[in-house]
Amino acid sequence: MSFDDILLNIISRLDGERYKHAAFHLMKGKRSGQTLQDTEYYGLHPFFGMLPSLHAKDFDLAYRRLLASGLITEKEDGTVFLSEAGKMRAAALEPVRLNGWVYRGMEQLFFARLALTVQTVSHLSAGDRTFMPVSADPSVQRVVRNLFATVVRGMNPKEIAVEIRNGLESTGMEDARLSRFLARLSGKGMSGMTWHQLSELSGLSEMDLKVEYVETLHIWLDVISEQQTPLLVALSQGVRAESPLTGSAKKTDELYRAGMGMEEIAERRNLKMSTIEDHFVEIAINDPAFPLRKFAAQEDIEDVRSEAARLGTRKLSVLKKSFPGLSYFQLRLILARLGKEDGSDGHDNPGKPGQPAETGHRI
Amino acid sequence: MDMTIRENLDSLLKRVTGFDEFREGQEEVIRSVIRGRDTIAVLPTGAGKSLCYQLPVYALGGTVLIVSPLLSLMEDQVAQLKMKGEKRVAALNSYLAPKERADVLANLGRYRYLFTSPEMLVQPHISDRIKRLRLAYIVADEAHCISQWGFDFRPDYLRMREWLGTLAERPPVLALTATASEKAIRDIADYLLMEQPELFIHPPDRPNIAMELLRLHGREEKTEWILDNLSRWKGPGIIYVQSRKRAEELADLLSSRRIRAAAFHAGMENEDRILVQQQFLNGELEWICATNAFGMGINKPDIRWIIHDHLPASAAQYIQEIGRAGRDGGQSLATLLYAESDADTAAFIAVDDLPEPETVRFIGACVEEGLTIEEAGERAGLSETALRVVRYWLGRLGTESAATQMERLAEAKRKEIFSMVRFAEGGGCIRSKALGLFGYSPASRPDQCCSECGLVPERILTGRTTAGNTPGLLDWRERIDRLFGF
């Protein structure tokens, strides 16, 4: 799927309730309360953190292309929604096979390890012990060095090649795609291609190539986790996120579980109260046992729920008008738990082109 | 006495490296370090500078501390020592994981060679540990960086002065570089706190690099010249350009003429930069169109041609960049394409990142009002580099003198560019003029000296016979087979 189609897909799920930045932060995997909430409400897990180093410039170009081709429009307040043509196109899109929520950019680490392993085996079997490593990242070098003392030690180059080949074979991805993917690998006398070179050769844009590459990695990694072949499993060690919480939110969660209050945590961690609030929203999204009723009265919770359903919105600014007595923080927490308690469904927008997140995208 | 040292040195050389004889310039430097003298050695590229710091420690014992400007350079030197079988070597830098760093720090005394950066060195918890070592001597590798970067880019180079001052017993300091003007040598001696250093200075003259200077009218004419000449003659070579955009433009133009070229600049992904370097080293690419981000630490011996598409900001930078040609000793060429408008562009870019005096005063005032320097920097919209520089000078000089210092630095940069303009516009032997920028004159005139003395391209470059073939996209199964050598 091209970068433009990915963007259209995301906007179709946001359904006229968000600005363009929401899609940008989502693709970059921004760990803010707002982006995490969006991911949850609108079922955007496949796209979360798919391109951590996305440049605003590239994003804007794609966004403007969608505007210019009439697939999307902006309302006066800046919210973006699909035109009829956009809806048709979005409905006809192939299903995305990205799995951003689970890999969060860590798939790059898997590829870096794979590339360094292949490069090393390639040079060693040609009797060359001096080469410039394709990854300058010391943590990648460390992992690969360990692999050569363990898993790789017992394998000959043939076995390694066969494991990689069979692994890719079994993903069922088309040959042209795999050829573009493997063009990034280097070996003795044969360097990988830069994005620019690959773009010249394949006729695809650099952005489209990067999107395809990330998707290819997600597809392959999903297969690897089922197949458990020794080298590929070792290379993908630690690539799947273990906890849905970001590092800092996790720390806040631990302190909260240890019995500290929000202000105490803020003081102890020397963080702003708004940051701690973001953490609590993140915890509320992810923790099924989150004690929402400690933060809001039961009847307020129910009123907000029915109002959100009645208006068909999750926009804070709209709901705040109906509930001036509740703080933004309370509203965000209630929204975070929407559809997770009392069996009510948070995704009650029938006819939306974007499907809600598949369970496979959950950790 | 001298005789014994001589015998010892020769057998040491043999034992450590397997060589029977020193290369020109090495022995005096090594002797001076062993005698305990502060030493400045300016040796041309390819003269074997690393041996100068690697050998004396065998006679003295203890640990050598090598301060190096680039992580990649450090890693490269560590790898080369390890390849020679040296196990007692480590690099203390930001690449290390916390646990690894703790390991290195806990075992500092075990190392024979310890590499680090100025930034790391001046951190208190690191420097305290290093101070307790028995240091044989301290080495500043690529020491011209002190003068070239210390004042307006990496002030921690200047902080080394204070650090050296805190050592109870300062070991001798050895400064190594390929290019140093008189001012650079004064800066090196001053900021490395040297006492009457021994100077071993070899002019940066590389007789195997012919020098060519062409005056053209503007960018389009340069482009035309490059495309025309690169279609006739072969590299491998580097085209140094002013901007990222220009690097990409030229690389694309060359590629479209089936000359294998790629851009290299700091705006590219790290992975892509590594791939480009690798392709160049492998001979898969013939030309690199690069900003000054490319070069230091690149060890490709057979580079035949360096072209400058713009006017370098200083003589030192120019000599460093052309010095990447012909490390194998083979005949090579350095071409400078000069247009009159280049001077203004170079001057503008050189002082672009330097904070204005007013900015320094503004930051000084903010700090006085109780803001942190980071907050003040944010208000003034300063880049990280600029803030680092302001922080250093404010701390040393106070607001008013720091503001004046910015003016002085800008003036110094403009002066360097002006001397490059004179170099590009004046007449006479180019080699003599280039060496003259450092206060030397050539020892002799090589056959292929420069475009003023007369050049015969056929004697320098190899003609291009056939256009290169761009390889297509391999089928992935075949690529796996080839990668694994099947």
UniProtKB/TrEMBL annotation, chain A:
Residues 340-350 have a biased composition (Basic and acidic residues). It comes from the Bacteria. InterPro entries: Helicase_HTH. Residues 248-335 form the Helicase Helix-turn-helix domain. Residues 340-363 are annotated as: Disordered. This is Helicase Helix-turn-helix domain-containing protein. It comes from Bhargavaea cecembensis.
From TrEMBL, chain B:
Residues 222-375 form the Helicase C-terminal domain. Pfam families: DEAD (PF00270), Helicase_C (PF00271). One of its GO terms (molecular function) is ATP binding. Residues 30-198 form the Helicase ATP-binding domain. Keywords: ATP-binding, Helicase, Hydrolase, Nucleotide-binding. GO terms for biological process: DNA recombination; DNA repair. GO terms for cellular component: bacterial nucleoid; cytoplasm; replisome. This is ATP-dependent DNA helicase.
